[in-house]
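Posting for a labmate who doesn't have an account.
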Amino acid sequence: MPNTNKKILLIEDEQSLSNVVELNLKLEGFNVVCISNGRTAIDHAHTVGEYDLVILDVMLPEVSGWDICSMYKSVADTPILFVSAKGTSSDKIKGLRLGADDFLAKPFDLEELLLRVQVLILRHQGKNPKDLQTESESFAIGDFNVNLLTYEVKKDEETITELSKREIELLYLFVDHAGEVLSRDFILDQLWGTDTYPTTRTIDNYILSFRKLFEVDAKNPELFHSIRGVGYKYTG
């Protein structure tokens, strides 16, 4: 993926939101580091120049996003995207005066956030945002190609089926943790956050579907392995 070497620092104390944003950024190929406390964010000021973008919440424990923005801009020119439940004009003006590059009010649409992220990074690189890649992002599962934008699964350039967003997220989670044993609870926590959990049987049903689609022999899987009493491991 084109964004694989791009690093984003996400500073957000609302854990469920942070998890969702982190997952979607990773789906776009970004490397993401998360911080949930303002004081910790200040302690990371010396590393901000290593990132391609900072996504910064205004209301944080101990130190506000305003102060963090001022500190970061004094040591590096890394673009900063403010996100805040306080979306008044005065707040936006304050953020821009502190040196922020953009301001997005909560609640926001994830697609808009991702587009702003791409545009800010391109501008910082001196590129025209019109150069934003429109070609499909994808990853491989065995002999299949999974498209992150259209959710299509192809084999030998032929579309086999179309997956749901949740299926895409689950597949990417396995690919991102290839070779690791993922417990059912870990998977539920990563994809459903603090929302009402489905039963762990839900994960089992997804795996059965994946085996039928991606495995040569669903009864003898070579990609999606069951780890008795724990969960699953992907070895693509």
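Reply:
Got it, the structure tokens are right above this. The chain has two domains: 7-131, 138-234.
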